[in-house]
What does this fold into?
Amino acid sequence: MSNRKGEKVDDRQSTNHPTLILIRGLPGSGKTHLTTALRDAIGRDKVVMLDPDSTDYESKEYLEHVEAQTAEGVDPKLHAYRFLRAKAYEGIAANKIILWNQPFTNLGIFNKMIERLETHAAEHSVRLPILVVEVEVDPALAKQRVLSRKAEGGHGPSDNTFTRFVGDYASFASEGFNTVTVRGEDDVAVSVSTVMKGLERLGQK
It folds into this structure.
């Protein structure tokens, strides 16, 4: 068995392995709504959900993580990412389906993150099939959703940051990933069906 980069991975757990689903798109595209619906469709006990916007940065677990990272001299800008990565490692060890929801605009960082997760899985002799889900949406609609969410007290980027996201965001479908594309305007049930079919195809490879 080979991973995305052609490196050999032990296939002893080919029928019992973790899976990584990376859900990317603009803020306001509907990523979180889709991620939640996917979790419910797959089964909550089978899923690890990762989202920097939903992380409890005041929790004891996160504060202990920051304390440990600070003691190691890790750049504070990396604390949140490393926390999510540690959660992904736990999901790999538990053979969970990892749903990681984030815009992921930087291809270099995206590739490096995946390489670390693939390496971690290989070191533990498990496969890590990866599915990239790209949520396409009209930027005007996405911005409207963000503004509505912020007006109701929710999170969201500033206008300048949103504009930067629009400028930086591009599809990674041509980069060799197993990719499915959904529309942020579609009924979420349609998008879930598309992702589940992509997940089924992934399991057949």
In short: The longest strand covers residues 19-25.
